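FAQ: What does a ligand-bound record look like?

Like this one, built around adenosine-5'-triphosphate:
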Amino acid sequence: MTFHYRADKPILPALDLDIPAGQTVALVGATGAGKSTIAKLVARFYDPVDGTVTLDGVDLRDVNDTDLRRAVVMVTQENHLFSGTVADNIRFGRPTATDDEVADAARAIGAHAFIDALPHGYDTDVHRRGGRLSAGQRQLVAFARAFLADPTVLILDEATSSLDVPSERLVQHALRTILRERTALVIAHRLSTVEIADRVLVLEAGRIVEDGPPATLITSGGRYARLHTLWHDSLI
Ligand SMILES: Nc1ncnc2c1ncn2[C@@H]1O[C@H](COP(=O)(O)OP(=O)(O)OP(=O)(O)O)[C@@H](O)[C@H]1O
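The answer part, i.e. the structure of the complex:
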């Protein structure tokens, strides 16, 4: 498929991408390379200019809105939390979920302990005094919501803000849980996240210039290998 926002500026000049069910794909590339644009096409915020985006062989244009929102869930940096209680925020992933199911999702993600320790537990208002959550905790609540939604495809735009070490560990654990055997597209900003992906796509000016498992790309010594070295060095 091809895509542009404005006819005089091609963004994805010729994208041909097939993601098998269950595969977690990390998108990496410089700012402006087209990572978010691909994510938005998969979530059908936009339609391609030419070609199609299909889910299980069905053109997204033929999927009704409700089914599409259930099948493809996008967790971005902006939509982490809205007003309401912690439970409301998690239950938004599946409005019919019982309290036990909400708590089970939080447990699976590793968020139950901190939620339980909040002034009003699951009934704590996330925007009220005393209910203020740290950046890491907010991410965990958003992950618990996505886990409960259990979408066919998860799109994750990883937060760029750095976390303290204990929160980073919790978030990485949560990511492993939520990405396990899931079809997922992750706009990755952390080395540790790319390393848990099955496959890395390196984008440059809207084109896939490298495609393979992270370990293979490191051995082949190309762009991802250089990026990996840079990321790795910045952690030391
Ligand atoms: N709504 C829009 N209208 C016009 N151009 C846009 C729009 N959104 C993105 N672009 C342009 O499309 C190109 C790809 O942007 P995109 O956000 O997909 O890149 P990215 O790889 O996700 O970058 P980043 O890492 O900074 O988020 C950029 O040149 C950007 O300026």
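Follow-up question: can I read anything off the structure? Yes, for example: The chain is about 40% helix and 20% strand.
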